[in-house]
Amino acid sequence: MRSDRILTIPNLITLARLGLLPLLLWMLAVRRYELAFWLFVAASVGDGLDGWLARRLDQRSRLGAVLDPIADKLTILGIAWILATEGLLPVWIAALMSLRDLVIVAGALAYRQVVGTLEMAPTRLSKLNTVLEFLLLALALMLANGWIVAGPWLSPALAVVAFTIVASGAQYVWVWGKKAKDHAHRH
Question: Which domains, and CATH codes, for the chain?
Answer without folding.
Answer: 9-186 (1.20.120.1760)
